[in-house]
């Protein structure tokens, strides 16, 4: 199958795509992208089709999501968007390592540094298909847990036995001839045919059917043997899975299994069948900033995700009830809310490049749009504290004019009424040196942790 490859935020013209062997019309792409954006786009589009009036042709624009999707009409092709935060690296290894580390942190995959390196190495030896990376991770994580045994749980069965076991079904026994030898009973057995195991098995079957990496497909076939006594996937199995101390170790594999089943059309999704998986990089980056702040404060304050604030309009509930319409769907929720002994502040995390082309000139911006300033100002006033906006930053490549949030003595500003405002960059070149992304959090060098804490103290004000 032909493949269209883009990097996050990259554009690719249809003339280039046609030279790569994919002769697709703008109309087909538009319909394809509408389905993808409907399935995976929450706050932002995943892919869009735009027209360049200067060149007189269409181009595909990738936004802030990483993943893949299959176009099953004519022509058949796969489109994939790869992570590339380290844009000028000669290969994709560091960008892929960063992406997997964020997935590991956000999704609780439980991968160690060596295991991430193995995944990166396997990908670079393959054919460059990002969907194979998801399949590889699933088979690896599941195999690691199956080494310790398959999960079993008690379930009740009804049988005809010659010995009494469990509860005798008296109503059924009363209808039997008096000399019958078998007794109807209901008793509990430790069974492997559970909702969790049926989900895991179904995802393995998908891997065997679609993976082009021989080692991955072969490993998946070997793991399926563990599920010989497990039935086929049933309607509602995913919703029935409940985790407990005995099966918690399968949670990361289950998370990937549901992505694979949904991505390859094994689950109902509103009538559309567009195989694919997309992960929003801004959500992963937000998780990274959250864990960084959590580590920097080290218990000297409280950090909340999506903390609800009071409505921006006084008496909003009464006004909405009276007029039969709503201002917003739910209360304002900043990405991160920090409460420190000296005050409070909100953080908005934006995974964007601040270079903007206007005409023939590239401009450096401090915020992507004026709406971002209005948003953080309203959030800060409602919360009674200051505001901090965090963008990714990479020295010598993009957003380098923003202050590095890990530096000492970062300069902050204020709004017209004196409300503190900070606009900083999360310097990605520090990852692996001063900042380590671990399985369940972020580890910071002691000095830069203090610098981040001082930055927060400069914008966290009020009661």
From TrEMBL:
UniProt xrefs under Pfam families: McrBC
This protein's name: 5-methylcytosine restriction system, catalytic subunit
Organism of provenance: Thermococcus cleftensis (strain DSM 27260 / KACC 17922 / CL1)
Highest classification ranks of the organism: Archaea, Methanobacteriati, Methanobacteriota, Thermococci, Thermococcales
């Amino acid at each position: 199958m032909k493949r269209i490859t883009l990097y996050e935020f990259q554009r690719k013209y249809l003339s280039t795509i046609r030279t790569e062997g994919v002769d697709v019309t703008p109309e087909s792409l538009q319909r394809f992208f509408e389905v993808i954006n409907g399935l995976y786009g929450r706050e932002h589009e995943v892919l869009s089709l735009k027209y360049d009036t200067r060149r007189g042709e269409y181009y595909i624009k990738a936004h802030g999501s990483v993943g893949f999707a299959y176009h099953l009409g004519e022509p058949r092709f796969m489109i994939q968007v790869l992570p590339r935060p380290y844009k000028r690296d000669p290969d994709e290894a560091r960008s892929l390592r960063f992406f997997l580390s964020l997935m590991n942190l956000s999704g609780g995959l439980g991968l160690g540094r060596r295991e991430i390196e193995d995944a990166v190495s396997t990908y670079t030896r393959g054919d460059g298909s990002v969907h194979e990376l998801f399949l590889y991770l699933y088979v690896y994580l599941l195999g690691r847990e199956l080494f310790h045994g398959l999960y079993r749980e008690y379930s009740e069965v009804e049988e005809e036995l010659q010995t009494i076991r469990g509860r005798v079904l008296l109503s059924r026994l009363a209808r039997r001839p008096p000399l019958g030898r078998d007794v109807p009973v209901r008793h509990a057995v430790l069974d492997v045919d559970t909702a969790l195991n049926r989900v895991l098995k179904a995802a393995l079957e998908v891997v065997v059917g679609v993976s082009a990496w021989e080692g991955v497909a072969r490993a998946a076939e070997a793991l399926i043997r563990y599920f010989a006594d497990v039935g086929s996937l049933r309607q509602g199995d995913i919703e029935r899975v409940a985790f407990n101390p005995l099966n918690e170790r399968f949670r990361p594999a289950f998370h990937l299994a549901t992505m694979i089943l949904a991505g390859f059309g094994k689950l109902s999704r509103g009538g559309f069948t567009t195989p694919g998986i997309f992960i929003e990089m801004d959500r992963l980056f937000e998780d990274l900033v959250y864990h960084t702040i959590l580590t920097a404060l080290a218990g000297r304050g409280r950090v909340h995700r999506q903390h609800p604030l009071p409505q921006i309009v006084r008496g909003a509930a009464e006004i909405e009830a009276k007029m039969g319409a709503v201002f917003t769907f739910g209360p304002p929720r900043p990405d991160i809310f920090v409460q420190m002994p000296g005050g409070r502040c909100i953080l908005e995390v934006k995974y964007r490049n601040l270079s903007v082309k206007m005409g023939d000139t590239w401009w450096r911006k401090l915020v992507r749009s004026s709406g971002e300033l209005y948003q953080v100002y309203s959030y800060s006033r409602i919360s009674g504290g200051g505001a901090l906006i965090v963008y990714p930053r990479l020295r010598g490549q993009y957003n380098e004019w923003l202050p590095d949030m890990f530096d000492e003595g970062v300069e902050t500003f204020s709004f017209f009424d004196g409300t503190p405002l900070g606009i900083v960059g999360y310097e990605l070149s520090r990852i692996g040196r001063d900042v380590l992304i671990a399985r369940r959090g972020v580890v910071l060098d002691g000095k830069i942790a203090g610098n981040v804490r001082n930055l927060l103290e400069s914008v966290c004000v009020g009661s």
